[in-house]
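Forgive a beginner's question, but might I ask you for the amino acids of a protein and the tokens describing how it folds?
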Amino acid sequence: MKRLIVLLGVVGISTSAIWVRWSTAPSLVLVLYRMSLAALLLLPAVVRNREELKKLTRRDWLMTMAAGCCLGLHFASFFEGVRNTTIVASSLLSDTEVLFVAAGSILFLGRKFSRRSWVALFIALVGAIMVALAGSSDGTPTLWGNALSLLSALLLGMYTMIGSECRQRVSNATYTFVAYCFAAATVLVVAVGSGTSLGGYGAVNWLTALAMAVVCTLLGHSIFTWGLKYLSPAYISMVKLLDPLFAAVWGLFFHEMPTALVLVGGVIVVAGVALYGRATEESA
């Protein structure tokens, strides 16, 4: 049942690119609106459980703050990536998060990988490179958008690894509330520092941000965070690879047809990550 709930969360996050395409505000502003609204929606649950908030240790606060910073920058990179490449490519590259989670597991957790895991990671990496170097079907340059999407994957991998540690001690509502608050604070600082105006973008951006806060954040990312207490980070990262399948459907609404290189690379990425997930689950 827990795995099914996490799978349903993929449907929620897959709609993110749709709302980004319909919005007109700068990416930093859109992230600020989204994270602020998500935190506001979680506030009643946190108030009811405010004693836990008071009991958070200094380590919990620092780690959750770091996770929030990573999440805010992840969204900013992903949103800007969606605007500079295709929906399918941005989703595929962002979902290579599992590669960075694997690297972090080796470097910081001292985890040993089986030969099958290494082969699977290599396959996924080859596919990711193919997608990153592919252009759009109409010849529009996409390298910058693809690079931003890869950066968003790195940042999301960091958020996932920190979350897997914190969620063993902190409830989902409290953890995500604090993380979302610091995600909003992070992009606010960046936006102000870069001279980006925070208002005057019209109701459509508040509506798209609200849709992302409910559908993509609370019914998507919050579900993944909830699952980190019961399922491995490898499985959580792996299951997100279903995201591009839904994203491909949403891209048709914007008349986006993936190129042959994106399709082939996408299949290779999914196959490699699926093989990696299977190898890690068997060795767990």
